């Protein structure tokens, strides 16, 4: 017994096996082994000597690490995250030392019960794989002096490095539900989702994954798995890397699905890291429009600098995508950056402006402007990944350091300038020409269809790949977009209206708080996944109202020909993207009209259709 670590009582009350907690995240051991207590007073105590790893921002949970290395999550109540810290009072902060039996939290037990929450307190051992023995007390009641568990480390335990994460439980639960670290071949993220490729998707229980607190939804799309987190995805991804150090597999991922899906998956992986910077450039452009309306001189140095900052990401897009493409195709990043720089070198770019025939040792070179281009560099880096492997295979080890780079450059130079570069450019021009043709003959139909089906594009994750491709083509050929970003006026503001209507209509306090948070997020930032997955899809009928609002937006925009002049997600703060740089106000006024129309139509539809909010009922406090 002396070799075992001791875990003492975390409150005063009934001791309950973890399997009886009415939440599968705990009862099915998705987060690890442990025990629970049903409190008879609103106090939580430290179960051992150790340090506070994190106190959740919503105050409903604390993670601790013992001096012997045991990491535990103490979770006060079920679904109490929806209290947003109300009625909960942590008495410790991160990095604080705690002693066994020390009071670390107070909470209002009676009021939390009155609001319908189950107040049971699970204690979960987050690094369960490090232990082989879990002895739990046979006592039915206890307090801070009661020995709840005695655990013993496995002989080959792997210590999880300490991190200051806020949502450590979420990260552990996600990875374990995905089949563990070894089942993941690659992981990345976009604005709101973790994007994951797996060795074996059959071991993943999607139903359990969707029930993890903090997971808004799970989407299978474009040959991979997407876990919708919301606007905290950056932190979740960072925490996963701190805890598990997942690197992309050196083996080739076996792409799944049809060829178009596989292509979109690749393009999405390459484009996603650049999208936030592209949107930031859109914000700067929108601000410049406002400043010029207010009298800013376009010849001033301030304007020139800001305008340069707004355009730099587009001009040097081939270089940025060379970096992300090298990560996706698993080739040398320096060689990829060389190709990006090659396309943008002033002497080579100069051929496009001078005209005339250009050749490389009698090999014809298509003289074009590669700035802001997407496909030429993607195709070139894709070919580079194979050329590099051939060089590694056939160049003798003794000569690799010097000859490998030379061989790769000599081979890739004509391929990039004579084949993949021109091919990618022509393909991009073809996409632009098709879009222009659609606009000139049936723009109203295209706008209406895309706007109407915007919710499905978001749910399947297709918007992640399609949005940058089509919008970049539109801006390059037309100078504006009147298709995809127009569709997301309806999507983004309809979700604000749904959340607002649900907040005002529901009587359930937890749903009302969730809806208020979602409404603010959608309205101010244009991030809609929290509302879409947390409310619309879950309540069903508000999802139908979303379609109604999107259709109304599509009809208005198709008739009024509303345009977007900068790349940023439509929201309250990005409304200037609708301001026409030529100084006219017509488009901006029309944009405000469709925003108002979308909000009103969706709000009324949500209110009339109603919803069954019983899915937000919490379990009874009595044991089943």
From TrEMBL:
Q: Which domain of life is it from?
A: Bacteria
Give the EC number(s) listed in the UniProt record: 2.7.1.211
What topology does it adopt in the membrane?
Multi-pass membrane protein
| Pfam family name, one | PTS_EIIB
Record domain PTS EIIA type-1: where: 23-127
Q: Which GO terms describe its molecular function?
A: kinase activity; protein-N(PI)-phosphohistidine-sugar phosphotransferase activity; protein-phosphocysteine-trehalose phosphotransferase system transporter activity
User: Which keywords annotate this record?
Assistant: Cell membrane, Kinase, Membrane, Phosphotransferase system, Sugar transport, Transferase, Transmembrane, Transmembrane helix, Transport
Protein's organism: Enterococcus florum
The protein's name in its UniProt record: PTS system sucrose-specific EIIBCA component
